[in-house]
Amino acid sequence: MITFPNAKINLGLNIVEKRPDGYHNIETIFYPIGWKDALEIVPSDATSLTISGIAIDGDPEKNLVMKALRLLREDYEIGELSVSLQKNIPFGAGLGGGSADGAFMLSLLNKFYELHVSEDELASYAVRLGADCPFFIYNRPVFATGIGDILEPVDVNLGQNHFVVIKPDVAVPTAEAYSNVKPHKPEESLKTLIVLPVEEWKDVVVNDFEQSVFAKHPELNDLKALLYKQGALYASMSGSGSSLYGIFPPDIRPELSLRNCAIWRELK
After folding, report:
1. What ranges in the chain are assigned the alpha helix state H?
2. Strand segments (E) across the chain
3. 0.85 exceeded by the pTM?
4. Domain spans of the chain, in order of start
5. Is residue 155 pLDDT above 70, yes or no?
């Protein structure tokens, strides 16, 4: 059985406060996009994980796909499986590719073994994999608070727009991104701002990471400016970076050719 974990972008991201446990409370809107990995499971004599596509460093056993498998095995009878993961979504990009893989694995196992676990129950497993993993269980636009684990449905439909996502060859460690951010409560909630027309988001729907990340990596600011120059209604960094995305009107089809960048387009 095969499934296709998709990426997400952040429509705005406010760092609200630092918590006693060292984490930060945030406000953001997670929005699913069509940049996808491929994940397949096949019954086998022994459990294994094969990864192709984008090379991933580290122990495969620490991959969220395998952690998801072991997590469900704690409560359900899950047989031996040959697991194949085709990585297309760049990692370290603020696109949630690894989180998507883990969450989709939970859903795939639920369907394959007919476990009849509800979405909400799957989400409770997913949060044990990572704060943004529950979003990929529901996989629809949500307003996220807490550390990104408290989700509320939100009515945002950008289906008529074109998307372009650029992932340059730049790494932005999460700790680095947080190190120079000054938490603050926004004057207006993203839930209020997001109902504005997209062309009015530019100066009010902000990603708090951009100021500190752009200061250290000015090339990312240049890419954001390029997206606006190409006609984007709105452009932003996703998550803590380093990907940038642009939302374009239906009549504009941007053409970008950039060195050392992965580019994904969804043109309607």
Report:
1. 64-73, 97-112, 119-126, 133-138, 174-179, 190-193, 209-216, 218-229
2. 2-3, 6-18, 24-36, 38-43, 48-53, 81-87, 142-145, 150-153, 162-168, 234-237, 244-248, 261-266
3. yes
4. 2-153, 162-266
5. yes
Catalytic residue selected from 8, 36, 167, 224: 8
Q: CB atoms < 10 A from the CB of 159, how many?
A: 7
Sequence ranges of the binding site for ATP = 90-100
Q: Catalytic pick from 132, 167, 208, 224?
A: 132
CATH 2.60.120.40 fits 2-153, yes or no: no
Tens digit of each residue's pLDDT (9 = 90 or more) over 59-70: 888 899 999 999
Question: Count of CB atoms within 10 A of residue 254's CB?
Answer: 17
The model's pLDDT over 204-253, given as tens digits with 9 standing for 90+, comes to: 999 999 998 999 999 999 999 999 999 999 999 999 889 999 999 999 98
Q: Is 155 a catalytic site residue?
A: no
Going by their DSSP bridges, the two strands 142-145 and 48-53 should be labelled as unpaired
Find, among 147, 201, 175, 176, the residue nearest to 16 by Cα.
147
Annotated binding site: 90-100
What's the start-to-end Cα distance of the chain, in Å? 29
57 labelled catalytic = no
DSSP letter assigned to residue 187: S
What would the pLDDT profile of 96-114 be if each residue is shown by its tens digit? 999 999 999 999 999 999 9
Q: What percent of the chain has a predicted confidence (pLDDT) above 90?
A: 77
Topology of domain 162-266 in CATH is: Alpha-Beta Plaits (3.30.70)
Please say whether the beta carbons of 90 and 239 come within 8 A.
no
- Give the phi and the psi of residue 36 in degrees, each rounded to 5: -130, 145
Burial environment of residue 207 by CB neighbours within 10 A (0 to 12, 13 to 18, 19 or more): buried
**How many CA atoms lie within 13 Å of 254's alpha carbon, on the beta-carbon side?**
27
